[in-house]
Amino acid sequence: MKDYQKRAPLPEAMKAYAGSGALAFHTPGHKQGLGAHPLLKERITPEGLREEVSLMTELDDLGHPSMCIKEAQDLAADLYGADAAYFMINGTTGAIHTMLLSVLQPGDTVLVPRNAHRSIMGGLVLCGVRPVYIQPEIDVRLGIAMGLTTDAVQAAIAAHPEAKALVAVYPTYYGVACDLKALAVLVHAHGMLLLVDEAHGPHLPFSRALPAEAIACGADMAALSTHKLLGSLTQTSMLLVQSLRVDQERVRQTAALLASTSPNYLLLASLDIARLQMAESGPRLLARAVRLAEGIRQAVNATDGLWCFGSEYMGRPGAAALDVTKLTVQVSALGLTGAEAEHILRWQYRLQCELADAYNVLFIISMADTMREASILEGALRCFARNYRRPAPLALPTVSLRAEPEVRLTPREAFFAPAETVPFTTGIGRIAAEEITFYPPGIPVLCPGEEITADTVQHIRSMAAVGLKVTGPQDTSLGTIRVVRKGQICTRAN
Question: Which candidate, 224, 236, 226, places its Cα nearest to that of 197?
């Protein structure tokens, strides 16, 4: 580790201020813990409360950092091999919104994977850009979306050469990584930016057994959920930038526009400390996580009725590599849905998975896990498979895609347009004012601003009929749907 990486400038500055003896006649109202309720004192240490201050000169300014925050961000950028890093206290949602708003302008065209997180959809609303959706690959056996293929992106670029950027999800929630290096070469050759939602990849640089991180693959910007897989507090993330094609001052201004002017320094300090922890011990901790995950995967695959895919399953379209610390355990051979398995594991075995879909339950092995946690998970899964097996395997619903509906309004236009609720089947020919997504595979069937067609309605009905989980609409029973009120001006977004 480089000597300068051994410091944590933010907590050092906070501790120095708390120990300076200055009597607090400033915010926050609890006055460094003096007026804190006992319940709050139970959750934050006395030292933490003393340091829970902000806006003092020596604590720097998140909107225009020049001291301890700048030093902490520079250390993070150095560790990740980026030109700049921006600390985010409004989650990776804030990082993604900053990323999009700092490089796109209203009316721009942007290529977006159909399975983008709702934070990306929110960013499209804020930006007022015109999305061109690209279908990711679907793995029918797993029932999940994989990544984008180079061919799919090439086709989208050929159809929309005016596009300013490609947004990529890398890796997916399930740990699947597309060939991001090839995508970077492709989009840069056409003068476009590569913007990456790397929410599930803040740990990637610290193990060669994992896919390469987005910045190393050539991404221009990458949003990382530091709290998801490293040691910072929930709600904290980083935005990494390579400045060759990006105006860093515009990024700073956008970050300041979207962030609180009263940032919580405990959150900021946790980002600095998470960076320090990875600088000190990242490779060792990730090596352990990889070793434990592979051991659990081997045990799962030796258990009748369970299956957990690994690196050997990669090399498929949209699946170039795997983050092996993500364990996707398919339970359908037991005759159970993922949701049923999640409930049993939570209440019978006191284990909480990260997510469940129709086929699978997903477990995350992080740098925090030890052999103790791995042994408990292995034993519980073996016991679960023995005790909760139905006579016949679950008849899996068919996961399929339909041609995307025509985009009639941009997401921003649809968001601000007056809307009304109508019976679902009478929505044909109208413009959707809400999103409808089924799990699996987690890809929107309908997005705000798209025209509702008879084919779309039939497809939605068929997916609902096989019991797939629906998210997005106000009425998840699909008896009604929100649509743009008639008489609104409709402009084609593509």
Answer: 224
Burial class of residue 370, CB neighbours in 10 A (0-12, 13-18, 19+): exposed
Least confident of 159-168, 396-405, 481-490: 396-405
Mean pLDDT along residues 342-368: 95
CA distance 487 to 494: 21
Predicted pLDDT at 459: 84
How far is the C-alpha of 119 from the C-alpha of 96, rounded, in Å? 7
- Region(s) of the chain under CATH 3.90.100.10: 411-484
For domain 411-484, the CATH architecture is Alpha-Beta Complex (3.90)
Tokens of 346: 């939570």
Residues of the chain within CATH 3.90.1150.10 domain(s) are 282-387
**CATH class name, domain 3-279:** alpha beta
Tell me the fold of 282-387. Answer: Aspartate Aminotransferase, domain 1 (3.90.1150)
Average pLDDT over residues 295-315: 97
- Name every residue whose Cβ is closer than 8 Å to that of residue 389 and which is 6 or more positions away in sequence: 305, 334, 335
Q: How confident is the model at residue 460 (pLDDT cuts 50, 70, 90)?
A: confident
Q: At 402, is the pLDDT very low, low, confident or very high (cuts 50, 70, 90)?
A: low
